[in-house]
Amino acid sequence: MRDRADAEALDRALSSPGATPPAGLAALARLAEDLMVAWGSEPAAEPAAYGRRVALATFRNAVAHGRRTPRVRTRLRVATTVAAVVALLAGGTAATVAVQRAVPGDVAYPAKLVLERTRHVLAVGDAAEASLYLAQAESRVEEAVRAQSLGRTGALPETLGRYRDDIHAFQERLTRVDAERAAALEARAVRELRTHEEVLKSLLNVVPAEARPGIERAIEATRRAGPPEGAGPPEDAGAPEDAGPPDERGPPGGSGPPATSPPGAERDIDT
Amino acid sequence: VDSIDDLVSRAARGDADAFAALFDRFHVPVYRYFAARMRDRVEAEDMTATVFVEAARRLPGFRGDGRAFVAWLFTVARHDLADLRRRERRHPLEPMDELPARDEAPDPADQVAERLDQDRLRAALARLTDDQRQVLLLKFAAGLSNEEAGRVLGKPVTAVKSLQHRGLAALRRLLEEQ
Predict the structure, then answer these.
(1) Is the pLDDT of residue B111 over 60?
(2) Which pick of B5, B153, B173, B178 has the fewest CB atoms within 10 Å?
(3) What is the pTM of this model?
(4) Distance (Å, rounded) from C-alpha B52 to C-alpha A101?
(5) A43-73 residue pLDDT tens
(6) Could you tell me which chain A residue has the CA closest to the CA of B71?
């Protein structure tokens, strides 16, 4: 009862600037004011402006796609998948090469992503899937470099976000692979991740400041996935416990916030 | 000044200006929510950008008022932070000293002084219960009201007030112990 009365009194004091809190609660009210000062930092202007541009571009893109009716969207999806499968089966044709060389911003780029998903459907076993994710991670690094050279630095955050997703997915699949094949995959990953890191570091030196955070996070992901400096293949290539890609999240709605993690997960997590 | 309800309603219908206004209104609160829990300012900026990209993807067609949007935005932020913590526990990260410093980095002496103080606060904050910590972050870092914080956490206002009181009391004790 006392607790509740104190909680109400403290809240009243905090909600009314200039109000004098009850004697026993003055220290807590002061702490709340200190917290507001300590946590009152401002984000740097350049990354904020860059984030705004990226968010607005994403919004316009989402609006453009959202205007298609569900039936049209389904037809488009089916048509794209069929086209991707045909391209895959006819591997080596000019169309397939064009799709495989596509970079973010190209018309063919969405087809490239569909093609990658199709390959996962056709892949047999976790080792094959892990291998595909590793190859995709390499594609993402190549795309980032080419996007930068084409001046499409706005595409880097999303491309490198996909890179991190691919690295995490590779690690997750690796945990399900038998020891012999896992060792071979790990050895390959060690070599490739070192190359990725070098390339990403080089990229860091040539992109505008606002594009660096995404690259820095990609480097972090690479390091987390790789072995310690001077060590052999990683002993623990276990799965990250993250909640999956953003697309698995529920849409926003008026009936309360959607679940963005598995149900109940937020109850025993340290945030 | 347009109300949040109005901006959300217009953005849900595809109005990019309304979305930009929502970004401008909530960018700093979301950044502060992350920055209060992170040593790395760049990472907080990056996490903030991720939340708004997610909002940009989901907002067209959003059905709900301003409060529902705010609750949803900070729920995404909260889960993104939880995901990051899980990944960090799984793959502890070494500091990246050799990376080039950002041009706008503040004076190193100021940084150290600030970090010491903030580190102490973060350490104490980490020892609160998740609900207490979330209430303090949502209210004093992000500046949400009791109602808004309650919607993010799925708790009634009375519970938010109680968590605020207990959280501040516990934080004070922990800071005095250090």
Answers:
(1) no
(2) B178
(3) 0.56
(4) 29
(5) 999 889 988 998 998 899 888 876 554 555 5
(6) A257
B68: chain A residues, CB-CB within 8 Å:
252-257
Look-up of token digits 């956490």: B153
* Locus of tokens 């490239």: A112
Closest of A114, A133, A137, A138 to residue A123, by C-alpha: A133
Rounded to two decimals, the ipTM of the complex is: 0.83
Q: Cβ of B71 and A256 within 8 Å?
A: yes
**Residue B133 banded pLDDT, cuts 50, 70, 90:** very high
Chain A interface disruption, residue of B7, B28, B58, most A CBs within 10 A = B58
At A239, phi and psi to the nearest 5?
Answer: -75, 140
Coil, helix or strand at residue A253: strand
- Give the C-alpha separation, B130 to B108, whole Å: 32
Integer angstrom CA distances of residue A67 from A71, B8, B14, B61, B101:
11, 18, 9, 9, 43
Rounded mean pLDDT, A151-174: 88
